[in-house]
Design brief:
heterodimer; A: alpha/beta; seven-stranded mixed sheet; four-stranded antiparallel sheet; 14 helices; B: alpha/beta; globular
Chain lengths: ~450, ~525
Amino acid sequence: MRYLPLTDTDRQAMLAKIGAATVDDLFVDVPEVARLDGPIRGLPMHAGEMAVERHMKALAAKNMAAGDVPFFLGAGAYRHHVPASVDTIIQRGEFLTAYTPYQPEIAQGTLQMLFEFQTQVARLYGCAVANASLYDGSTACWEAVAMATRVTRRSRAVLSGALHPHYAEVVKTMAKFTGDTIADAMPAITAEPDLGGLIARIDDDTACVVVQYPDILGRISDLTPVAEAAHARGALLVVVNTEPVALGACKSPGEMGADIVVGEGQSLGVGLQFGGPYLGLFAVRDPKHVRQMPGRLCGETTDAEGKRGFVLTLSTREQHIRREKATSNICTNSGLCALAFSVHMTLLGERGLRELAAENHRLACLAADRLANVPGVEVLNNSFFNEFTLMLGGKPAREIVRDLADRGVLGGVSLGRLYPGVAALEHALLVAVTETTTEDDIERLACELEASIKESVQ
Amino acid sequence: MNAPNKSGWKPAMELSEDGMHNGPATTTGNRALMLEEPLLFEIGRKDVTGVDLPPLDPAAPSRLGGLARSEPIGLVGLTEPETVRHYTRLSRQNYGIDLGFFPLGSCTMKHNPRLNEKVARLPGFADIHPLAPQSTVQGALEVVHQLGHWLCTLTGMPAVAMSPKAGAHGELCGILAIRAAHEARGDAREVVLVPESAHGTNPATAAFANYRVEDIPATPEGRVDVAALKARLGPDVAAVMITNPNTCGLFEKDFREIADAVHAAGGYVYCDGANFNAIVGKVRPGDLGVDAMHINLHKTFSTPHGGGGPGSGPVVLSEALAPYAPLPFVRKNDAGEFYLVEEENREERGPTFGRMTAFHGQMGMFTRALTYMLSHGADGLKQVAEDAVLNANYILRSMEDILHAPFADSGPCMHEALFGDKDFGGGLSTLDVAKGLIDEGYHPMTVYFPLVVHGAMLVEPTETESKAAIDQFITAFRAVVERALAGDEALKQAPYYAPRRRLDETAAARKPKLAYEG
């Protein structure tokens, strides 16, 4: 067994030191009823590296990898090119096999990286302070709502109808248990989001308004009026961003008055990975809210010789100190994904991120124009960054997506899958375009979509 | 002395007059291979990038709804060689399992096999979208299904929820299922009982789910006080949360009796499975009356800790709680195809309490954990538990003559050995021992946890250390403990040889500086 260094001679010598005859003597406290007489039945015995790799490769081969076909899926997870150096850096054992930096003298690598990461995220979001990450965008969204209820001492959250439905589900699930009230809505299938309707739902009990930017249909709108309306009622504005690359081209949420900005960081460095692990980003615009933030924070300090160094700080908010009074039960962050994000962001820099965003937008504009020429297809959006909504002229998008997959094109995410049972959304298809999309891919989607629509039964 | 360096060399310990330095100063502040590294924002430039993309075209069409960015973001970039060097230099200021013995109790810092990393990076796993049509991701769904089968079989439990993103998220999943199950019966219970030795996430989780948390005392031998627990049970107690093996490193031998009593009182039993690595393949928690237990894939099943996550915390569930498990779920139909139970077909699942995360959980960790399980098999996993427990007991019995071991008489420990700071001289503390171990080249053990032991030191060797490595650690640990017992003042300023001396955490918290300014 290649991962177990003890030999039988070692084991005997150690048992002798302990004063036990057999290793089972060390398990005497396990009640008789729960002791097993041998390896658990129904599972295979140990296997060599080659055999295991063969088994796992066979499973991987049953999946259609995004890189092998024209690929247009988004809706909260985006395929971007990750520079080769990102993965070699995160595979360095000193990062990969380190623990949470509880002993800062021998964890400055992780800590300095987190300090840099927090700075990058705060600047991207137009905020003062970002934390060291949370599990993913959806859980960060809930944590933002929970924080807003602490800050305002109110318990009602108003969700925009154009918030990712899975994010809304997570928030509603958690609120059921905390007793908070969540006012949600369905997205309006319109070229512009209904911000007036959203503003009208804010009342004097509202702790926060949660708006996605760009929204689930890909639309971009100025959230300044929402911020003003929320603040006038004593509520906070929470802005959710699922595509950080968009902020290389668009105004930051902080600039528009968001109080808490959260999002998914997966686009940079992390990869698709079938949904996880991902990277929850969390930032606040006003430093006065720092002590109400969830999750780990890394701060600058000095050591006994006066040398600059970094530590985890303000941990009196956290569960290991505060126990049942903590701001969150969260214990880990998403450290290695934060490293991947930070390395990718360092490679991009201000210039690279802006160029990357521009390239995404350029290709998305090309795709929107080409797909609008497919008979029976309309582009819903007035505005978008790299993702937009297609209306398929009465054709059910779920079936079209499946049919496109059979034709070797991963053509998008049907709103029917995201909003099951909502008739008004069944004919809408979300299409995401990134720098990895080629003009040939766009042409291929247009042709296959046309064929699929033509052949589909009304 | 079992010296790591056969020449017998040791660093000179003579200190300079200010007690801080030895050897002459260098111009750079570097000390040979110990290299200082500036902050990214001090070396990066705003017009430099390490990627080659088309330059900005001011004439390009824009459909950004009039919201094109007008202000700079404030980011800086580095070219690829500078980036690689920046992070490589940072990495060398970190301690990791690859570098040495990392006996962090309760955290299970075992070797992370590299086959796991290789497999997780296969494009068929790494490059698939969570919302891809299910016919195109059958292999991924099968991985989730197979891993779930392993977890259920190893724990003797009928069901598993795979989506929780980490251990604490898994705890939350279990407690929410318990609340949902009670509420479905119209049974409004308000209290969750948690032993005082529990990890802080337990009370934080219960409080999050709007339960009132009450402590259960421990016995002098380091286990749950069964009589006190039974006396507290009643119609208001929703659940008990018990870690087994517990955070004192002991098996809760009365667990079955506790579980039966809790069930008789109408409550549920949550087992914190953080220490499952001590009993994997040896004991099935299902045989002990558990209703819900999370499993930290990054502990028992060797997925990397990554400097603080990502974790992964699937939760095994009893028949009573399984219907309330969160979406999504992977199932297999009669035709042998795998499919997801999501919002649209949720009625298949019964009264699920909802959704905990946007997608399906930590797929990248599932592939690694399954690879690890297949490598070890049922026989290897049993050996994993046995070697982990053997190593911990060997350390316990090699230290107890000089270091206070409060529960040494309670019988064998499981995967970790617990010590306290009794009899340290000269005002020295557990923290000083930890910092002294850093100078000896070790990552310290867990300190000041569990709270039930004064100055706790929790040592978990794991099964992936050789006897030689453990013997060398024991030699170093004994030497540092002897200094602490003797009241060696020099220990108060350790570490001397780490990239940083002791850091001022009070100043960091008093005036937080959480982002680079400038």
